[in-house]
Write a structure and sequence with these properties.
This protein has 169 residues and is α+β, with helices and mostly antiparallel strands. Helices cover 31% and strands 20% of the residues.
Length: 169
């Protein structure tokens, strides 16, 4: 009986070490299996939180760069937007999602990790006053990191946010 208890405890500890977001084998920048959601699910989540979205093309086609799409968006990223809205109390308008036309990479718009937000005074002040300035990105955009590890980059005419997690949801 003691061997079974010891093995059960070892299995629990091992599981915790290898679980996404825990243990010594993961960091804020390690890629994990993510839950993807549809455009309809994302817009429902955003609508329920008072988050708006817009596109220069007035559309949501993932394959059209003038649209704003949330197709194949990460659930944790959508929850991260909801957390930002709730914590800041600021208006949030999304201008970029998973549509084509953004830079590539693992933690990209296309892969569901990023959102672009309209640049409003309220959200800019919230980011700069509550998150840690971490310097400029390779393209010169100043960046701030939230306590949960998400990155907020000021790209001049909008905020580019990389969600590694839901922001403490």
């Amino acid at each position: 009986m003691k061997i079974r208890s010891a093995l059960s405890a070892l299995a629990l500890v091992t599981g915790a070490l290898f679980a996404p977001g825990f243990g010594v084998l993961t960091t804020a920048t390690d890629a994990h299996a993510v839950t993807k959601i549809s455009h309809a699910t994302a817009t429902s989540m955003f609508r329920s939180s008072g988050i708006t979205w817009s596109s220069s093309g007035g559309c949501s086609d993932r394959y059209n760069s003038t649209c704003t799409s949330f197709e194949q968006f990460n659930l944790a990223s959508a929850k991260g937007a909801q957390t930002l809205k709730s914590a800041s109390g600021c208006a949030l308008n999304i201008t970029g999602g998973t549509e084509t036309g953004h830079a590539g990479g693992t933690y990209s718009h296309w892969n569901g990790y990023k959102l672009d937000y309209s640049k409003y005074t309220c959200i800019g002040s919230y980011i700069k006053n509550n998150f840690t300035y971490i310097g400029v990105r390779g393209d010169g955009a100043p960046q701030w990191r939230s306590g949960s590890g998400n990155i907020y980059a000021d790209e001049g005419n909008h905020w580019d946010v990389t969600y590694y997690n839901c922001g403490g949801c």
